[in-house]
Write a structure and sequence with these properties.
The complex is a heterodimer of chains A (466) and B (97).
Chain A (H helix, E strand, L loop, with lengths): L3 H24 L3 H23 L8 H20 L5 H30 L5 H29 L10 H23 L4 H19 L7 H23 L2 H24 L4 H6 L24 H9 L3 E6 L1 H5 L3 H13 L3 E5 L10 H8 L7 E2 L1 H4 L8 E5 L8 H4 L18 E6 L19 E5 L2 H14 L1
Parallel strand pairs in A: 1-2, 1-4, 2-3, 4-5, 5-6
Helix pairs in contact in A: 1-2, 1-9, 4-5, 4-8, 5-6, 5-7, 5-8, 6-7, 8-9, 11-17, 13-17
Chain B lengths: L1 H22 L7 H12 L2 H12 L3 H32 L6
The chains are: A alpha/beta (466), B mainly alpha (97).
């Protein structure tokens, strides 16, 4: 015990960093304190790294310095250059990297333990197998999610029974391999096969899920990356990893739950139903009888310029058109004219939880003007104009009126009840859910056909003329 | 050894509860920074990566695996905290009205 000083200091430092993580997350609950909270967590991480470097098992620092330098540089460049609209892709990639790192830690420990023992000790064996599996699934799943968000991989839901079948087989195969590796013998070939199976499993898990369900997938993978870190913590018997991993795991799970509730669907339904591929043409037959009334920039400006209460409802189309600055310009102009303007954001709008809020914050929209559906819905009759920018399913009244529709029961922003609703959209096409939106044909609704960014710019010009 | 696993489980379960309590209080507006920030925290496996490299000794494969883990975890940590900070700077009150 000649090093007893260090051997107590290091775990205490880990405890301190866990406390800093908790305090940091606590401060994330308010926009004013959130940036400080994030820094607190970063300090906690720095502390954990420094404590680890004091570990006397570490003798050679050249590789460590190289790794920290390369990773740090890439991290800085990525964080500085990413566009706010690409934040879901960024988080997906980072999830994948975190999962891969945790998985590789488990691999490293497996190789080390193999040197000394024929058969793994049951507890470290279980931890290593769990760490390997979760890490690999998180990595490949996140890469596919990234590909889907980026458009490399088809964003559509792929519904194929073969996918589910192979996933089931692979999962069984992995579990059998893991049990064998822990219970019977250490075998490198089997271990590499386990990793390969887990990587394919991650791909099969995300491939069937369609674009607009990505918020759920990204949140779930976030949770997995935490669980992967926690299992690496079990492998190393390190409480700092276990605590941090558990915090992130809990965070991801809560967000996943919130996203599912906001769509009134179960997690199983999101993961396995290949939503949006079936029931497509359910309500489209009657197109001929109904007429959507178009509106142009001049009339839109009139309606908006003389309104007293206006809400904007942003959706994924806003992100695609990079129209967040345009919305704010129009909103500012209206505010100058004495119009009360708010932004109503649906929890699942966009491609990740809170996606729209980040874009609006980037455009300098004060967060006091952001509100949630339940703040606006009770009062919708008093809203003079609701402007829907690039959103569809989240304002579809069928969710409220037709329980049998695929989105039945999903909480929506009830812009159909506003005095006037203006939908800015390229066409009358269906949204992600693949169902028609009766809102477009209502008497109080106007369609502004066109690109969101361009449309908002034209309306802004017209409002200036008023 | 089984004692350590058990203590680990205690810590894990209790930390999950702390996480649930903390995160339910985060408003939807901040969900994206919450994700990227907590994502950076999951880069804590950087600690594991350091230990793998440190303990590798002459085992080349282990060292390379440790290096790969270290680079990925460092990207995750540094990039995650920085990008979260960038986002949160935008969320500060602009006091427009």
């Amino acid at each position: 015990m000649e090093m007893s000083g260090f051997s107590t200091v290091i775990p205490l430092a880990y405890l301190a960093s866990a406390v800093l993580f908790i305090l940091g997350i606590k401060r994330l609950s308010h926009p004013e304190t959130a940036a400080g909270g994030n820094r607190l967590a970063a300090i906690g991480m720095l502390l954990a790294v420094i404590a680890t470097l004091l570990d006397r098992a570490i003798l050679d620092f050249t590789w460590i310095v190289a790794g920290l330098a390369v990773g740090g540089l890439v991290g800085v460049v990525m964080a500085r250059t990413v566009k706010m609209t690409a934040m879901p892709e960024m988080v997906a990639v980072f999830n994948g990297f975190g999962g891969a790192a945790s998985g590789l830690v488990a691999v490293g420990e497996y190789l080390r333990e193999m040197q000394s023992a024929e058969v793994l000790a049951i507890d470290s064996g279980v931890s290593i197998m769990a760490g390997t599996l979760i890490g690999a699934v998180t990595f490949s799943g996140s890469m596919i999610a990234f590909g889907k968000l980026q458009g490399f991989v088809t964003g559509n839901a792929i519904s194929n029974p073969l996918v589910k079948f192979s996933a089931g087989i692979l999962l069984g195969f992995s579990v059998v391999l893991a049990v064998y590796l822990v219970g019977f013998e250490s075998n490198l070939v089997f271990y590499w096969s386990l990793i390969a199976a887990a990587l394919i499993l991650g791909v099969l898990f995300v491939i069937p899920i369609g674009g607009a369900d990505m918020p759920v997938v990204v949140a779930l993978l976030n949770s997995y990356s935490g669980l992967a870190a926690a299992s690496a913590g079990f492998v190393l018997e390190n409480n700092a990893l276990i605590i941090s991993g558990a915090l992130v795991g809990a965070s991801g799970l809560i967000l996943t739950g919130i996203m599912c509730r906001a769509m009134n669907r179960s997690l199983a339904n999101v993961l396995f139903s290949a939503f949006g591929t079936t029931a497509a043409s359910a309500g489209r037959a009657a197109d001929g009888d109904r007429v959507a009334t178009p509106i142009e920039a001049e009339d839109s400006a009139m309606v908006l310029g003389y309104a007293s209460q206006v809400i904007f409802v942003p959706g994924y189309g806003l992100a695609v058109a990079q129209a967040q600055h345009r919305v704010r310009e129009l909103a500012d102009l209206l505010t100058e004219r004495g119009v009360s303007v708010r932004y109503c954001v649906h929890p699942v709008a966009g491609r990740m939880p809170g996606h729209m809020n980040v874009l609006l914050a980037e455009a300098n929209v004060p967060y006091e003007q952001l509100c949630e559906p339940e703040d606006v819905n009770p009062d919708m009759e008093n809203i003079d104009v609701a402007v829907v920018v690039g959103a569809n399913d989240v304002v579809n009244p069928l969710a409220r009126d037709d329980p049998s529709s695929p989105i039945g029961g999903m909480p929506i922003i009830e812009t159909d009840r506003a005095k006037t609703c203006i939908v800015i959209k390229r066409s009358l096409s269906v949204g992600y859910a693949g169902i028609d939106n009766p809102l477009f044909y209502l008497r109080n609704n106007r369609m502004f056909f066109g690109d969101a960014s361009d449309a908002l710019a034209r309306i802004t010009e017209e409002v200036k003329q008023l | 050894m089984e004692g350590t696993l058990l203590i680990g489980l205690y810590v894990f379960v209790l930390a999950m509860f702390v996480g649930f309590e903390l995160i339910t209080k985060v408003p939807p507006t901040l969900h994206t920074p919450l994700m990227s920030g907590s994502n950076a925290i999951s880069g804590i496996s950087i600690v594991g990566a350091l230990l793998v490299i440190g303990r590798a000794g002459d085992a080349h494969l282990m060292r390379w695996i440790g290096l790969a883990a270290l680079i990925l975890a460092t990207i995750n940590v540094v990039g995650g905290f920085l990008v979260t900070d960038r986002m949160l700077q935008m969320f500060k009150s602009k006091d427009a009205s």
